Structure formats: structure tokens, C-alpha cells
Amino acid sequence: MSRRVSFGFWAPVAALLVLATPAWAQKSADQVAVEAAKKHSGATLNVIWPAGLGALGQKNYAAPLFKQLTGVTVNIIEAPPAQVYVKTVAEHRAGTAAYDVVSVQPAWLADEAEAGILAPLDKWVDQYGFRQSLRDIEPAYRDNWMTVKGKIMAIPDDGDVILLFYRKDLFNDAANKSAFKAKYGYDLAVPTTWEQFGQIGQFFTDKYAPQLYGAAIIHDAASMQYFFQERFRNAGGRFFDVASMKSQINNEAGVKVASQMQSEAKFMPPGSENWNPVNVLTAWLAGKVAMMTWWPPPGRWSEGYGTNEEALKWVPESKVKGKVGYALPPGGRPELALGWCLGVSTHSKKQELAYLYIQWVNSEKISLERVQLPYTLRDPFRANHFTSAEYAARWPGAKDYLDILKKAAQVGMLDLSVRNTFQYQDSLGKAMQRLMAGENPKQVMDDTAADWDKITQRTGVDLQRATYQDWAAKPNAYPR
Amino acid sequence: MCGPADPAGAGPGPAGVRAARGAFAERHFRYVALSPAVLLLLLIGAFPVGYNLVLSFQRQTMFSTDTSFAGLVNYRELLADARFWQSIGHTVVIAAVALPLQLGLGLAMAQLFAGDLPGRRLFTALLLLPVVVSPIVAGAAWRLFLDNAYGPVNQIIGWFAGRPVKLLWTVSEHLVYPTVILVEVWQHTPFVFLLCLAAILAVDKNQVEAAQIDGASGWVIFRRVVLPAIAPVVSMVMLIRFVDIMRIFDMVLALTEGGPGRRTETLSLYTYVLGFQDFSLSYTGAVAFVTIALMSTVLWLILGRLEGGR
Fold it and tell me: CA-CA 20 to 30 A from B91: which of A41, A100, B97, B280?
């Protein structure tokens, strides 16, 4: 009886709730965005996007599909990655509506939000029922890359993180194992400290060079500064002393990391002191190095996934197929380096449509398609990406690849993001160049710390302290 | 004094007034005709300088559009900005080495080509190719040539050395200046050569023949006859090249990006970084204005010396 009463009471309530629920609650985020965007059919959205492979995911897949579904043209305006920020700021200063959707690196988020470049997205997130879907984004990206002072200013679009790739065949080779143990007194295994990385790298170089070298690391200024950020914090370093806001990158940890990074070049391929990402990737795929740190895409390309695509014809044929292991870099807390989010320009005349496009491309369904495009340079960042059975079946080791990506995202550390981040990054990048040119690490880091202090002074010490404290309080700013 | 009956019609009568007006118009017509173009040029040239000057007394940055008067704050900061003075030093080093090299090579080639060299036209055309290449393309191309992994330069040196050579042309602090200067000399020596060749070909042949009859050697003829004759042209060529090198930007950007570290950061490159990467707008205005003032002073002094030497 009571059951009947209960059912009799709740059934109509439930029915009323269902009827009262907004239409979007019954549809997926991509469907909601498409329905709403159809009202703008015939319009054109201008989107600034990092040039190259990343843009192909938009040009070849997302933009044509959105046009087909909504009648809205998406015009992808490419710019070299480092110039995306420069162009975005320049257009904003000029007051143009050149871009409706803006690609933002999380490290620039504070700058761009404070400069008024980005429009808050909260009202549209609620209006189009996207908030629940956003909870599906991996917390490291969701909780750190989206908001400034509690407002959603951008939506994560790429799960960038640095991984260690290693040659399983070399690490599992019995002769290598015994020789290594005899020389260093511990088992040959994936390095968990940078000291081990150095010894293992030297070991392979001593044994195999010039056919193969122990490791290769990207040494261009723009990339290498991320590696310093990662290693410095893994070594216990903190970027600033909060009380004085003096830079701490020249402390003991900073100089030690700088010295290590400089000395590691000795067991890397000759002339690799200025290798860019493509140089390192080429050496890796050619089977010329035993270890490499890189962003996630080589994990796919090493196995030949999608390398027959026209866009990836430039990728050398992999000679390491089936031999690649994936791991967290030594230190265990990888850098969530670079990364991309999407925001809406405050100068855009089509802000709502711009938001709808962002919701659509980042919806569970469309984003899962995009991260599986072999050429997009877009890496998993949502729960359904990491658990996708379709993705896990892409190549024999894909499940391991997704697992390590998820783990890396959970423990990864954020790029430093304060006011004028670009200037700090540029200064640190120049320091890395000087290290590779053979200059004294202590001198280099002292000069760079002085440079950072000048930037802080120019920015305003109190203002920068507040921004830094806000950033440092994030769960993924420093190892905990 | 002219009366109405002045047959010349130059008096105060209508005919005289017309004549006076005609003479005035004739005297000043060139100024009237030129004034729109001159005013336009002044406007185009003066506006950015004036705007820069105004900007340099403010505190505009990426975050702040504060246009209130900030006094000399940017100029005080500039005086203490080691990077600014270093960038001037880097630029001067490039000019001090590249200019004499360009002059020496350009003059030598011009003298060589002024004779009856077989295939002179073909070689002249080939030599001029670097000049037509955009500096940023030249920088990027040389960066590839000198790449230690894929560039042909190290490979060729390796063939001669009999072993692999991995010279880090754009990374090593010892090699980076020779590299920048090499590319600068490669690209712009043909310009010096071309103008010097034209000047040498215009030297009075009679003077050269007279010197030859007097038994002067080739070197003496060049030094005593040719060089004095072409000196005004050479001076102007050097002045143009000096100004160009002091503005050197795109080639360095593509070749070294001002690195390693900031070792090859030139004045223009630093100004670009300040304005378009750091968005320190007012400070960039101060740097630009001081640069204009410095360069104008140097040019004024050089032009004064050139004028005095005539």
C-alpha cells in the first residue's frame, strides 16, 4: 500500500519534472549547440588557431562539419603558435573584431582575461546547459585552465602534457640489463629521477653511439623553458619568494637543474644543442635515440597510427613500431606544458555564436572525434577520451598510452601563469639557449633571475604577488 | 620709377601688376607645386615621430590605456636599461665589421668587373641575386644551410675535414657573430658592388689613360685616380649601408632570433620585442624616439663631414 502511495505520488512529480526540464537537458551538448547555432545560418566566425597540424583538425574536420550542420562558416585564421598571443593582443588593442573565437594558452589566460580580451562564458554555459558536461573534463585541466577569479574565461581544448617515451626493446635487453647493473649497481628500468636519466642515457650512448644515443630533448628556447619549469619544481623549487616577489629560479635547485640540463647534451646526438621538436621526433622515429621527452603525439605516430594520412606524409616512417613504452618523465610530476583553450573575444560581434562553436567542438562527442584525428595535435582531456574503447583499439599499445596520459594529467603541473607570463617565458627561454651555448649555469640563472625581477618590478610587485598567489594556490601549481 | 606709359609694362599699372605677379609666380611656382607633396611627406614622417614622442611620456601597456602625463619615467628607465645599450652595442659590432667587408669586397669586385671580364653581364646578374632576396628569407635560408643536422655547410666542411663536423653556427657564442656578419655581407655586398661598378665605369677614361702613359701601376691608378673620382658615390653607398645595418632586424630574427640568449639582439629586434611581445607601448615609444634622435644626430654629423669634404 505504502509502495502504491509512494509510486502514485512520485510518478506525476517525475513526469512534471521531465516536462519542466529545459529542452537542452534532454539533448547532448553538441546537439544543443547545433540547434542554437542554426539560427545564425549564413554567418561567418573568425577563429585564430595555431598554424600547422593543429589547424588541420579544424580545417579538415570541425569547420566543414559545423558548416554542414548549421550553415555557419568557420574561417580558420592560422598564426605561428607563439604569435597567436601577439596577434590576439594587437587586434584587441586596435579594437578590431578580427577574431570571434580566440585560441588561448592557459599560461596567457590571466593576462588575456585581465586585459579584457576574453568575455566571461558563464551565462552561456548555463543557458546552453554545458556545465554538467564540463565536469567530465579531467580536473587538472578543468580546475586550472578555465577560470580566472571564479569566472569561466575559456574552455580547455587540448590535454597537453610532457611524457617520457622509451625503447622497451633496449630496456628489456638482457645484455643491457646485466651490463648496466654491473656498471651502476641498480637495475636498468625507466628512470624516475634525472640522475638515473643521465646515467641510463650515458650508458646507451657509450654502448651504441653513433648508431643510437641515450636520449634527445627538445632544445629550442620556446619548448625548453617548459622543461626547466617542470624539473625546477620537481627539485623543490618555487618561482618566487612571496614576501619579496624576488625570483628564486637561481637558487640551489634552479642552478642544479640548469647544470643537469646542460650536461645531458653530452650523451645526446652531436649537434642537438638547438634541436627543435621536429629534429627530436625525426631522430626518435628513425630509432636513433633510446629515450625522448615530448608531447603526446609521437606515441601515436611511433605506431604508425594515421601516418599514411596526407597531412602526416612528412612524418618519417617509424622504425620503432611496437618497441615504444610510455612513462611519466623523471620526477614524476610532468609539465602540463602549453595546452590550448578556446575563448570568446570581447570585440566579437557574434559572441554567442562564437560560444556555441566552442561548446560544439568541445562536446564529448565531437572532442572525442577530434582527439582521435591522427594529425590534429589535440590530445585527450575528457574522461570519455581516456576510457574510449574505440581509441584504446587504435593500436596494440593504445590502452597503455591512454592510461599514462590520464595519470600524467592527474599529477601534472601547470605552466607558470601570472601577469606578463610571456615575458617571463621568453626570458627563461633565452636562458636555456645560453645554457646550450655552454655558458656558466650559475651566471645564466643569476642573470635570468635579475631579468625576472625587472619584469616583476615593471608589472608591479603587489599586483604580481596577488596574481602569483592566486596561481600558486591551484592544486597543480606545485607538487603536494 | 615706372609710369603708366612705361613701355616695359613693369610699372604699377595693370600690366605692371600682372608682370610682377607673373614674376612672383615664376619665382615661387616650384614651391607651390611641391608643397602638397612635401606637406604630405612631412605629415607621414612627422606624425609617427610626434605620436611616439607623446606616447613616450605616458604609461600605456597591454593592460593600461592610461594617457595621462607620466613625465620622464620611461626615459629614466631607458638610461638604466642594460639590454637597450647592449642591443646598440650588438648593432654597432655588426656594422663595424660588416661595413668595411662590404666596402672592400664590393670595390674589389667592381674593379675586377670594370675590366674586360668574359661573361661580365652574366656574372653581374648572378652576383645581384642576393640583393633581390628578402632579408627574412635570406635569414631563414641560411639558418637551414647552417643547420647542424641537415644543413649542407657542415657536411661540406666535414668532407674536407674527413670526419663529421657539427659546428653550431647559430648556437655557439663564438660562431654566432661571424654567422650574422657572413649573411649580412653575402646579401648586401652586391649592392655596394653594383654602385661602385657604375661609378668606376663613369670615371674619365682619359685620366686613366694618362696615368697609364705616365707608367703608373694598376694599384696607383686605382688609389690616385679611380678612388678620388668615385669617392662621393662610395661615401653615399656606405651611408646607405650604415643606416640599413643600424636598422637590421628581419635577417637576425630569422637566423638567430637574437640568440643565443640575447647575444645578437639588435636595436630593432629589441624594439620589436618591447612593442609586440611585451606590449610595453610607452616604453617602446621612448626607445624608438631615442633611436631616432641618436640616428639623426649620427647622420647629421656624417653628412656634415661629407659636405665639408667636398
Answer: B280
